[in-house]
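Posting this for the archive.
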Amino acid sequence: MPHPRRILIIRPSALGDVCRSVPLLTSLRTAFPRATIDWLVQDSFADAIRHHPALDNVVAFPRGGLGATSRKGNPFPALAWMNSTLRRRPRYDLVIDAQGLFRSGLFARWTGASRRVGYRNAAECARVFYNRTIHADRSRHAVDRMRVLLGSLGINADRDMRLYTDPDARAWAASQPWSVSRFVVVAPTSRWPGKQWPAERFTDLARHLLASGVERVVVVGGPGERDQIRPLLGWAAGEPRAIDLVGETSIARLMAVIERSSLVVANDSAALHMAVGFDRPLVALFGPTRVERVGPYRRERDVIQHLRAGDRFDHKDERVGVPMMERITTQEVLEACLARLRG
């Protein structure tokens, strides 16, 4: 393949998917060290990859504002953004759509790039926007599916998952009094109730961790997720060794906290993919999602999941997910945590 001078990666969301897409970036940088490599990403997730040394530019997609106007039947702000941000930029030689949805495929087409690569089996008919389509088996892990896109171009696809933290966020984390301690990050929230381990069990786990010699437990989550974990936060309010950061950190600061941690305990959420990106010890709690497809990459040994014959994998249906998550006991999670802390 002729060496491209300008490359665009399209992976706007979700946050965990953005974090685990960095092998695309590192592989492209190794293959084309002199190329300009940009990444189109949802603006609220940009800090997840902004400081990666292999990246030249972030192309921030303002999903919140544009999505609101599109839902109201007004496509013109989105079209104006695509024209000003994609059509009028210096033209890309190569665009890789790692998202594989209608919108991301449309973005790829709008760039006018001479080579637009995507999945042959992309959802929402996105393949119509590509001029080179690659079949990638959906049963493979999401990271390996992305690597197939590169392999089809003759690019050696690596597995470098390393994330990089904003220097200011790293300085903030280092300045926190609790950060000099040996601390465990607990990420007990999820968008979907079917992915949530019971908050009462997270509370019991945190209490046992402190009793076992852990100096601090740091609870993290998004600003709209506090109601999911009221029992845990109520306990944390009366425990000086528990640090409540739910809704208090930007993505950059969350990454900095995870980077400094001794252990991360998380539901199936972005925090566990950050833990992989910083090579932190990890205990991941899974229910109705397929670990072999979307679990922590090459860290399946760090997953606790109990499957039974006839289980249905539907994380959006809490009638399916909640009972599966409840199969995970506090005792087994505690034992897994202590084993990793012993190193």
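The chain has two domains: 6-151, 167-342. Residues 140 and 293 are 6 Å apart (CA to CA).
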